[in-house]
Amino acid sequence: MARARKLEALDAGKPAFRVSREKALASQPLASASHPFRNDAFPQTYIQQISVRLDDPDHPLTLTWTGPNADSQKTGPFRTSPGAGLRGLNCDNDATSRRSGSKCTPKGTYPVQGFQRRLNSDSRATYVTWFMQRRGIALHYFPIVPRYAASHGCVRIQSVDVARLIQDNSLVDDTQVVVSGTWTKPAKQWS
Question: What dotted CATH number matches 2-29+39-183?
Answer without folding.
Answer: 2.40.440.10
